[in-house]
Fold these 2 entries.
Entry 1:
Amino acid sequence: MRISTKFAPRKADDGKPLTCTTDTDLKREQLLDLYRYLKLTRLVEERLVNLYRQTKVVGGVFRSLGQEATAVGTAYALGQQDFITPLIRDLGAVLVKGIRPRDVFAQYMAKAWGPSGGRDLNIHFGDMERGFIGPISHLGDMIPVMTGILLGARMQNKSIVGVAYIGDGGMSTGAFHEGLNFAAVQRLPLIIVAEYNHYAYSTPTSLQTACRDLAEKAVGYGIPATIVDGNDVVACYEVMKQAADFARRGGGAVLIEAKTYRRKGHAEHDDQRYVADGEIEWWEKNNDPIDRFERYLLDQKVANQEKLDEITAGVIREIDEDCDWAESSPMPQPEEAAYRVFDNEIVPPSLRPKVLEN
Ligand SMILES: Cc1ncc(C[n+]2csc(CCOP(=O)(O)OP(=O)(O)O)c2C)c(N)n1
C-alpha cells in the first residue's frame, strides 16, 4: 500500500447519482448482510433517539447518521480474532462484531441487565471474546491502548490485527501521536481508520489541521496510507481487507482515511448552528451511504425492492424485541455502583447471587 491522495468523489449533480464500487468479490449473501448491518445501525440509533426524547436514556445519544458505511464496511472485513476499538460514532462496527442491540439499548438506559450493569453508558463497554475493546475516550487514548494489545499479542505469537477508529479532532492529540509512532516503529499490525467527517464537535476540519487530507499525516510516521470514500460500504470493506492482509503479513501499521460527513450534531443536544445552510441537506440528498448501497444492490440485481424491505422488516422486529427486553430490565441497585468498577470483586452478601450470576 502507498499514500494515495487521489480521492475525488464524483459530484452527484452531474446527473448520475452516486452508487458503490462494483470491484468486489463479496458474494450476494455478504452484500445483503452488509445491508442488514447498515439498516440495523441506522434504526438502532433512531430508536435510541426516541428513547432519549422519552427521557429514558441516561446521558447523550451520539449518532453516526450519514457515516454508517465506514464503520460497517471496515469491521466486516475483519476476522473474529481481530480487535477493534471504536468511537462512539462507530456503532456499526460494534454490531458487526456481534454485540446485540439489546445490550446497546440497556447500556444507553443504564439498566442492570446492560453489559456494564448501569455503571457506564453508550458504547463504553467491551467484549474481549468478540475483540471489542470499549473506548475509554474518543480523543486518541485508544491508539496507545490498541498498540499495547498488539504488542502483547505479538509476544504471545497471536496473529491478530487491531483497528482503532479516530476522528479528525482526535488526531490532533498527543496520545494519538505517541501511540501511532510506537506502533509504526514496532511495525505492529495497527490499522487506523481516520474518519474525516468534517467536524470535531463544532470545529471544522480546516481549523483542526493544516493538512488537506488526514492521510498526509502518515508520512510523519513512515507508514502507508490510503483514502477511501467512507460512504461507499463496499469500498470500505475492500480497503480494510487489503490493509488487514498487509498488516497481518508483517507490513506494520496502516492509516485509512475515510471521507464522510456527520449529518447530526456531536450528540442529540447539539443544534449544529455552526453548519452552513444547505450543507446537511446536500449530503442527505446526494451522498447518503444507505441510499447509495440500495441503488447498487438494485442496479446490480443483487436484490429487488421486496428483498430489501424484507430485510428491513426483520431488523425492525429485532429492534422491537431487544428494546422491549432492555426496557423491562430493572435499574441497578444503588449499592452495586461500588463494585466491579475497579478490581474489587468482593461483593456484599446481599448482592452476591445476582451480581455474580450475570
Ligand atoms: C479531553 C476531552 N476533551 C473534550 C472532550 C469532548 N469531546 C468528545 S469527542 C469531541 C470531538 C471529537 O471530534 P472528532 O475526533 O473529529 O470525532 P467525531 O466526533 O467527529 O467522530 C470532543 C470535543 C472529551 N471527551 N475529552
Entry 2:
Amino acid sequence: MLNIAVIGAGRIGHVHARTIAGHPKASLALVCDPVGDAAEQLAAPYGARAAKDAEEAFADPKVDAVIVGSPTPLHIPHLVAAAKAGKAVLCEKPIALDMADVEAAQTDLDAISTPVMFGFNRRFDPSFAAVRAAVQEGRIGALEQLTIISRDPAAPPVEYIKVSGGIFRDMTIHDFDTARFFLGDIVELHAVGQNLDPAIKETGDFDAAVVTLKAASGAVATIINNRHCASGYDQRLEASGRNGALFAENIRGTTVRLSNAEVTDAQEPYLDFFLERYADAYRLELSAFIEAVEAGTTPPTGIADAVEALRLAEAATTSARTGEVIRLAS
Ligand SMILES: NC(=O)c1ccc[n+]([C@@H]2O[C@H](COP(=O)([O-])OP(=O)(O)OC[C@H]3O[C@@H](n4cnc5c(N)ncnc54)[C@H](O)[C@@H]3O)[C@@H](O)[C@H]2O)c1
C-alpha cells in the first residue's frame, strides 16, 4: 500500500484524489493547497488529512509518494523538494512553462534518485495503448502516418489561458508525448496556429492548431487541436502503416443508437471531459507508478519524456509565430 499526498486541490488534484481512493494499492494520506479550504474540502470525504503548505507532505515520514498537481510554475520546485525528501513523485505535465526553467534546475533534476513519473495519462488509455501495442507487434507493417485528434468541448476561462503557457505547452503537450510514444525521436516540426476565438486571440495565444512532426524513421504525425468542439470532447487516433491501419474512436457512455423520423443512428455524446474520458487511463497510470515504485524499476514516463515534450511545445510555439519549419537535433 502506497501512502500518497496530493499537492494542489484543483481540477487534476480532484482526479488524482478520486483515483487514489479507488485504487486497491493506494491510500490518500494528505492533500495540500494554500488557497481557502480547498485542501480540506478535497481531503475530508476520503478521510485524508489536509494542509496549507506542501512542505507538510515532504516532511511527513508516513507519506511514501507525492502527486504534484499544483500550477505548472510550481512543478519543478515541488518535484525537487519531494524527491529531496525521499518521496517517489508522479508529476503533472508540463514539467515547466519554459525550457529555461528546466535548464536552471538541471543540477537539482540530475540529482534526483527517487522514482519520478510524469502524468502523460494518454499513454495508458486502453484504446491508444492497444493501437500502439498492435503497431509494435507489426500488425500494420511499418508505421507511416499517425493522426492525433484532440479537441476540447469548450475553452477554459481566459484567466487560465493567460497563465497556461499557450496551447502548445498546455494542450498539445499530451499529443507531442503520444507522437513520441509511437514514433520515437522527432526531427522536424511545423505548426500552424489559428485564432478562431477573439477573446483568446487577445491573450496572444492560439485556440486551435495543426502540427506536423517528422520522425527520424521518416514517419509523419499530424496533430489536430481545438479548444472547442460543438460535439464534445473529441479524442481520436489513427495509425496508418504499410500493411494496414488502426483506429481508436471516441467513447460514449453506452452503445445505444436512436433512429426515428428525423434521424438515424443517433448516438449519445462523447464522454466529457478528461475526468470521464480518461478515467481508466488515470487509474492505469497510477497502477504503473505504484508498480514501478514497489518493484524499484524506472517508471514508464520520466523527466526526459517531459523535457522532450516541452521542447516540442516550444518549437511549435516558434513555428506557429514565424511560419518556420523547425529542425530538431535527433
Ligand atoms: N494530465 C492531465 O490530464 C491534466 C489535466 C488538467 C490539468 N493538468 C495539469 O495539472 C496542473 C494543475 O492544473 P489544474 O487544471 O488542476 O489547475 P487548478 O487551477 O484547477 O488547480 C491548481 C491548484 O493548485 C493550488 N496551488 C497553488 N499554489 C499551490 C501551492 N504552493 N501548493 C499546493 N497547491 C497550490 C491552487 O490553489 C489550485 O487549487 C497544471 O500543470 C495542468 O497542466 C493535467
